[in-house]
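Lecture 7, part B: from sequences to assemblies.

Below are the input chains for today's worked example.
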Amino acid sequence: MCGIVGYVGPKDCSEVLVSALRKLEYRGYDSAGIAVFEDGNIRIAKEKGRLDDLVAKMQTEGTPKGHIGVGHTRWATHGVPSAKNSHPHAGGEKVTLVHNGIIENYKELKEQLEAQGRSFVSETDTEVVAQLLDSNYEGDPIEAIAKTLSQVEGSFALGILFADREGELYAVRRESPLIVGVGEDETFIASDVPAIIKYTSQYYLLEHDEVAVLSENGVKFCTLEGEKIEKELKVADWDQEAAEKGGYEHYMLKEIHEQPTAVKTTITPRISNGLPNLEECSITPEKLSEIKQIYVVACGTAMHAGMVGKYVIEKLARVPVHVDIASEFRYREPLINKDDLVIIISQSGETADSLAAMRLAKQMGANTLAIVNAKGSSIAREADMLIYTHAGPEIAVASTKAYMVQISVMYLLGFELAHAKGRIDDETCRRLTSVLSGVPAVIEETIERVDAQCNEGANKLLEAESLLYIGRGLDYALSMEGSLKLKEISYIHSESYAAGELKHGTISLITDGMPVIAVATQNALYDKTVSNIKEVKARGAMVILVCDDDAQVGEDVADFVIRVPRIEEILMPMVAAVPLQLLAYYTSVHRGNDVDKPRNLAKSVTVE
Ligand code: F6R
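Predicted structure of the full complex, as structure tokens:
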């Protein structure tokens, strides 16, 4: 939610800020702005719309020239997307800042400031912090920041320019992420590593309530009391190429193609002697054998990865698994016991609801295991146990490779848990692990095989107002993700349904020509799903069937059949996910949508 950047160095600041913001547009893209020290004054340029709209505006009205500044790309929370609501916000004469996060008590603070005679130009919570900081500033930036932070409640990362401190850029955060990059003779702040990777791979992670002071002498860190802090310099292992499109038309397509490598990089180090080995992540067979019950808590796609995990773990390890939406879990007083395992799945590691859910689980005494992609993120740092997925940076808002690696970890965990509990023998565990190791090659083969067909199949969905995804068992778990993928980037309404549940109400929605995408890869359930397909077909549905090479598909069953290679049945979601991703992708492309930046969405949801 919103991306912030800052720069101090010899380069043209506006150019650096715009280039860094491009890498953060996935966090929000309804307006953008920069503020730069130019000849002793802070000059602000901001505009509603994409970063390109800001660039166009600066081309006609002039680009701020200088070497120190901050920038912002917005995902609106308080106030509509507009130039006046976009950041940076000036708090008066003394302070200009950019903000990522939410100030929860902004209404009370605004009333207090208005009572002091201040008036506001925007509807944002950010301007309230800017004005508060401005009113608190009497020449000592740290003192003013500390006083302001003692008054605000919520989550935030701030990049601040004080008008009388031309050589300095201040940054502070609470909850919302912020890194401080260090290059040769230059320093940066950013919400995420890809923003600065073009300039440097070295960075510090700013912790809660730590202040960073960037100047031409480098960066210094201190507490809110002004005490100096020494921090560990980190080196990002994501290179620039990995964060670029690499010749693909969209990041989403690139990321779909990166899935074989992402899965391989994620699982290979966790397999030894042919068996899963998660000891490096502090997960021992002894610990696993004691688990009585598992909760998987996550949002969106990550929650859908949990759904696949539920079927796998319950089937193989016979341990009950409850999958919860994090925003529900955190407020419904869940019944967690001390020996329960709570698994939090998150690509960004910063999702506000998932983080809060994990903290709640910890408070209640449960063991927490985080499955996270973004290194050093809040969820990764606070979990008791941690498995990093190695998908590399995922830029497209619609998650694909992160989902795939999340599932791959759920399989590894399921296999090891079942083995540790004595539910599967050595030989079975080795066989399953070996099939999993072979999945990257099958995903690659599948992409090649179904790409053109999905492109063609997508044409059948373009005019639909609404459609259904159906499946049973693991196919149902996968359908949930297929449906979310389609709706978020094509803007066509879609729901996923357990195929057997249709006739309890939903089948009344079927009208002539309505698309139904059926997934049928599970042998024992195949005939039952086919019966459900026939029921919708008899009522006029246009059926696209995703099945495997072995499926016997009668002529009257589907209008369009997409076959994927068959592997061990329990692992079929990793293969069948590919056509669902590509169908969504091509539908979005053919409808002329912005595939990587769908409307109203943002990649990292750091607000409730
Ligand atoms: C959809 C998508 C979202 C995320 C969700 C959780 O394609 O990406 O549904 O899965 O917002 O995000 P993370 O995984 O960062 O916690």
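Note for the exam: The mean pLDDT is 94. Keep this in mind when comparing with the next example.
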